[in-house]
Specification:
The complex is a heterodimer of chains A (146) and B (82). With 146 residues, chain A is mostly beta strands. Chain A is built from two helices and eight strands. The chains are: A mainly beta (146), B alpha+beta (82). Strand 4 (54-62) of chain A pairs antiparallel with strand 4 of chain B.
């Protein structure tokens, strides 16, 4: 038996990469339609939505329900139809995270990205109940040194 | 831009299905009633602009360090498909 086989090693952490197509782009970035959703377990709860044509550019995204457990986004019917969502499970929601200059981090709960898990088509949706939520919902940060 | 004058209680119709009615005029504030099919999104322009600005601020370089969050968060669904 070779020694190498006796060493217990952690399986390598592999980032998951999924192509996501946003036919309308994002508000303010209408021309950018192709993205890669990169999920690395080590970066939990964050993931990257990379611009496919320039992967150095990306949005930090996270599950908005982790930021606000009783988040109740009302997805407009037009968007449900556009994304061909048949049931709630078809939708993956991504909240766009802003990391501010002063290290504060916030998540946009008014305009989440809704991804159809089966087709990987996505759209930034202004939820019908946007007035109830903030574009800069604060994330609880660890104290410096923790 | 089409500019129309409307009196209190008067409406305009867009595309035969969206009705916009002047409900109240109070100094500089005009209250509009909008009746539209459920598939027509209606939002204040500020919401679009707010989200646009937020997106522009959020777009970052991949090298940006991720924020460190307080406490343990449960396993998230971002890790599941797609």
């Amino acid at each position: 038996m070779k020694c190498a086989e006796m060493i217990e090693t952690e399986p390598p952490v592999v980032a998951r990469r999924d192509a996501v197509r946003m036919p309308n782009g994002m508000l303010g970035f209408e021309a950018i339609k192709d993205y890669l959703l990169v999920t690395n377990p080590e970066e939990h709860p964050f993931a990257w939505l990379q611009v496919a044509s320039d992967i150095a550019l990306a949005f930090v995204v996270m599950d908005p329900f982790l930021a606000l457990p009783d988040y109740q986004p009302d997805i407009p019917q037009a968007d449900v139809e556009f994304l061909k969502l048949k049931q709630a499970d078809d939708a993956l929601l991504l909240g766009i995270v802003t990391v501010h200059d002063d290290q504060r981090a916030t998540v946009n709960l008014k305009g989440p990205i809704v991804v159809n898990r089966h087709t990987h088509v996505a759209k930034q949706v202004i939820i019908a109940n946007a007035a109830a939520y903030s574009v800069t919902h604060p994330l609880p940060l660890a104290e410096a040194g923790n | 831009m089409l500019i129309l004058s409307r009196k209190l209680g008067e409406s305009i119709v867009i595309d035969g299905r969206i009705h916009v009615t002047v409900m109240r005029v109070d100094g500089e504030v005009v209250k509009l009633g909008i009746a539209a099919p459920s598939e027509v999104p209606v939002h204040r322009q500020e919401v679009y602009e707010e989200i646009q600005r937020s997106n522009q601020q959020a777009l970052t370089r991949q090298s940006t360090p991720l924020p460190k969050l307080a406490g343990k968060l449960p396993k998230l669904s971002v890790a599941s498909p797609p």
